[in-house]
Amino acid sequence: MIAAEKDLNAVSEPGRWDVERIRRDFPVLHQTVNGKPLAYLDNAASSQVPQLVIERGTRYLREEHSNIHRGVHYLSQRATSAYEGAREKVRRFINAREARECIFVRGATEGINLVMHGYGRKFVGPGDEVVISEMEHHANIVPWQMLCEEKGARLRVIPMNDAGELLLDEYEALLNERTKIVAVTHVSNALGTVNPVKEIVRIAHARGIPVLVDGAQAAPHLPIDVRDLDCDFYAISGHKMFGPTGSGVLYGKAELLERMNPFMGGGDMIRSVTFERTIYAGLPNKFEAGTPAIASQIGLGAAIDYLNSIDRAAAYAYEQELLRYATERLSKIEGVRIIGTAREKASVISFTVENVHPHDIGTILDQEGIAIRAGHHCAQPVMQHFKIPATARASFAFYNTKEEVDRLAAAIEKVIEVFN
Amino acid sequence: MSELGELYQQVILDHNRKPRNFYEMEQATARAEGFNPLCGDQVTVYLKLDGELIKEISFVGSGCAISKAAASMMTQALKEKTKEEAEKLFEQFHRMVTGELDENSEPNELGRLKIFAGVRDYPVRVKCATLPWHTMRAALEGRETASTEDIGPDISSAHISA
Fold first, then answer.
1. Known SUPFAM superfamilies for this protein (chain B) (predicted)?
2. d(CA B47, CA B60)
3. Are residues A138 and A202 in the same domain?
4. Does B156 fall in a domain?
5. Residue B133 forms part of a structural domain
6. A189 neighbors A379 (Cβ within 8 angstroms)
7. Is the ipTM value over 0.90, yes or no?
8. Domain end call among A254, A281, A308
9. What is the total count of domains within chain A?
10. How many domains does chain B have?
11. A190 touching chain B per CB within 8 A
């Protein structure tokens, strides 16, 4: 691990962010779309992939590909060691106690479904309650609804205020002896709100209730320390943190994972199988039936290498500056309304333009080479809270620039001009 | 704005601002609700049928400029048309916005609806233009709902091979 990683060791000086240098690490950024330079502002949907990740995945496919965990031959051992090496990188990245607490999944959605099936279906019964929040992504709503429907349990929802902040007093009042699990997002994909998850965990734990945190939107921005948060589960999507699609992690505390049922049955998750009885494998294999996305998970390991190679504190400060600047620019445009004004936000800005549907905004911005997301962002209850059908959303990574924010603002002004 | 001219023509913007036949019809003999779950667009189409003839047609709903203008101009085009003519017009409209019909060389009855030809260059917007039509057809067939997810990939054929 190799020349590429060494090159990255001094990407930026502390406290200073050399965005032009960072942009060189992301090949996809250097293209034109509809004759204009691409401004990729859809990072909350999927972030771009640095050269290091591309090279690592390519090297795996060219030189190391084989199935893991079951071959005695050379390639299988290399693939296994790269795959398990990626798991150890994940462990350090989120500060888990043990690598076996890091289950490889396709993404946060699969991680949440794993907990719903493995924990929920075993421990939630009729009359029990599951607590989620009003700002959840559908991935952290629908599985729990399915569980409640199956078990005759009740879904309770932590409300939020009009800034897009959860009401912690109301949250506390929702908890009772029937509450079996709390599932909340660390950062809202639709609003950008950073939730006080450590406090949310503390309040639940005071009543002995486990907490799942959906970390899909947090991992690309914030340092993650699952032991400091003391959460019981934490779900991550690799493709939102500069890794490949199909990669992701569900962290779970070992003692909980041990007590849970497997999610899927199949190869690699067993100790022994007879027609009378199957004995499951230990962690993490118990939850990793079938051949996993080996190349993708190794790519996630490389994305973590990349994040470790940059000054993440400086990256975060830079993103916050982009957010502040974009908020200021967009607020000055008449007819623009920013949805989500929490005190603590990640670099996500949802907005509407008076009398213009977000899809029309998205199409016109695309003509300007600007990629944003338009729609309900898989968070329809958030849209219902603000009584809007959809929003346009610009979401920034540390490789975006103030010039791109200026282009966004100019393009929005053009939208208003076309429609009025 | 030249590159957008094809899609957001003044007529479309005008129908978006001031949709025609935009009301709930109390004496409707058929109605259907259409959804695009991907974007949350929703449209309800009302019909007053006299045998085979569409005597009146109206719509309400929320959506983007393309879907609103498509619904508005559809209601204008279908008034006093027979069910069969409506089906035929939908078929031509659908083939035009998916790039299968060249409205300038093939015979058709599209008339002012040709203004939607530009949609074919925006494959993700095809469903916006066809949602009101799918909903109208659902109403004609006595179904209460239509969803863009149930009607298969409304994607411009020009872009599938690309």
1. SufE/NifU
2. 12
3. yes
4. no
5. yes
6. yes
7. no
8. A308
9. 2
10. 1
11. no
A270-275 CB contacts, 8 Å cutoff, 24+ apart: none
Using alpha carbons, select from A138, A212, A143, A144 the residue that is nearest to residue A381.
A138
User: Containing domain of residue B115, as a range?
Assistant: 2-149
Instruction: Give the three-class secondary structure for B147.
Output: strand
Task: Quickly tell me which residue has 């053009």 as its tokens.
Answer: A414
Residue A168 burial class via C-beta count within 10 angstroms: exposed 0-12, middle 13-18, buried 19 and up: middle
Question: Which structural domain range is residue A344 located in?
Answer: 3-49+311-419
Phi-psi category of residue A222: left, alpha or beta, with phi > 0 → left and psi -120 to 50 → alpha: beta
> What CATH number does residue B123 fall under?
3.90.1010.10
Label residues A234-245 b or e (16+ Cβ within 10 Å = b).
bbbbbbbbbbbb
Unique residue bearing structure tokens 């691409």: A38
Q: Can you give the C-alpha Rg of chain A in angstroms? A: 22
Nearest to A366 by CA among A32, A46, A50: A32
A10 touches chain B (CB under 8 A): no
- Of A9-18, A128-137, A276-285, B112-121, the poorest mean pLDDT is in A9-18
Nearest Cα neighbor of A143 from A153, A400, B160 is A153
**pLDDT digit string (tens) for A147-204?**
999 999 999 999 999 999 999 999 999 999 999 999 999 999 999 999 999 999 999 9
Query: First vs last Cα of chain A: how many Å apart?
Result: 56
Do residue A376 and residue B39 have CB atoms under 8 angstroms apart?
Answer: yes
B18 interaction partners in chain A (CB closer than 8 Å): none
What values do phi and psi take at B120, rounded to 5?
Answer: -60, -20
**Nearest CA-CA partner of B88 in B59, B107, B109:** B109
B-interface mutation test, from A357, A361, A420, most B Cβ less than 10 A away: A357
d(CA A300, CA A238): 6
Note whether B11 contacts A: Cβ–Cβ < 8 A: no
Q: How far is A358 from chain B (nearest CA, A)?
A: 7
Given a cut of 90, whether residue A14 has pLDDT beyond it is no
* Residue A113, both tokens: 């479904």
Work out the minimum CA distance from A240 to partner chain B, whole angstroms. 20
Task: Establish if B159 belongs to a structural domain.
Answer: no
Taking 50 as the pLDDT cut, the residues of chain B under it are 1-2, 153, 155-162
Residues 6+ apart with CB under 8 A from A156: A129, A130, A131, A132, A174, A179
Name the minimum distance, in Å, from the CA of A381 to any CA of chain B: 12
Question: Of A262, A285, A308, which one is at a domain's C-terminal end?
Answer: A308
Give A258-282 as a DSSP string: HHSPPSS-STTSEEEE-SS-EEEP-
